[in-house]
């Protein structure tokens, strides 16, 4: 009888913890990656499946790095994040919906606006600050979470750190079960 109770308890606990939502398994979430193109010396920030991985490799991008998780759909305390591309400088930048007007982005030479994901604009326990840095020499923008290796990028000439939004932490075993999404 004791074995049966222990077995049932273990089974119930497994079902409870097994149903806990992890960021990478939660259908509401989308992974956000950074890719590097050594030919152009530029970084891009892309949501999962924004482009096929084979296409990015064909375009000479490499060093795919998971930055954080974001949301697929709009919601309370979320802001839309858009990607813009500058064909002259070959730069890609991710900006929030109210950061710049479309007219300002066009005047800076950016085109091809497209929605990438939704990010939290509210600090919560399972969030990480996300910053954008600028390299004046290469005229490149880069997105770096607070827990990213910023020393490497400051040595490469990135400056002008500015807060953008909050991402969901990338820790693979961090459960979001009890946290607000």
Summary, kept brief:
With 181 residues, the protein is α+β, with helices and mostly antiparallel strands.
Written description of the protein model:
- With 181 residues, this protein is an alpha+beta fold.
- It has one domain.
- Helix content is 19%, strand content 41%.
- The protein has 4 helices and 9 strands.
- The protein has a 3-stranded antiparallel beta sheet with strand order 2-1-3, with no helix packed on it. It has a 3-stranded antiparallel beta sheet with strand order 5-4-6. Strands 8-7-9 form a 3-stranded antiparallel beta sheet.
- The radius of gyration is 19 Å and the shape is globular.
- The termini are far apart.
**Low-confidence runs of at least 5 consecutive residues:** 5-22, 172-179
SS field, number of helical segments: 4
Instruction: Specify the helix fraction band.
Output: 10-25%
Strand elements, count: 9
Report on the biggest sheet: 3 strands, antiparallel
The tally of structural domains comes to: 1
Radius of gyration: 19 Å
User: Secondary-structure element order, as H and E?
Assistant: HEEHEEEHEEEHE
Strand numbers in spatial order across the main sheet: 2-1-3
Distance between the termini: 41 Å
Proportion of residues in β-strands? 35-45%
What sort of overall outline do the alpha carbons produce when their principal axes are compared? Answer: globular
């Amino acid at each position: 009888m004791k074995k049966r109770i222990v077995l049932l308890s273990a089974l119930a606990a497994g079902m409870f913890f097994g149903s806990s939502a992890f960021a990478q398994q939660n259908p509401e979430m989308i992974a956000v990656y950074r890719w590097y193109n050594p030919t152009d010396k530029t970084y891009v920030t892309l949501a999962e499946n924004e482009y096929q991985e084979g296409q990015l490799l064909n375009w000479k991008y490499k060093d795919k790095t998971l930055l954080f998780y974001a949301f697929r759909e709009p919601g309370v305390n979320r802001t839309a994040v858009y990607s813009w591309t500058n064909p002259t400088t070959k730069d890609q930048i991710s900006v929030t919906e109210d950061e710049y007007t479309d007219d300002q982005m066009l005047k800076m030479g950016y085109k091809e606006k497209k929605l990438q994901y939704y990010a939290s604009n509210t600090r919560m326990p399972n969030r990480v600050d996300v910053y954008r840095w600028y390299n004046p020499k290469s005229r490149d923008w880069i997105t770096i979470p607070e827990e990213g290796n910023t020393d490497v990028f400051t040595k490469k000439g990135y400056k002008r750190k500015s807060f953008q939004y909050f991402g969901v932490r990338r820790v693979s075993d961090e459960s979001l079960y009890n946290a607000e999404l």
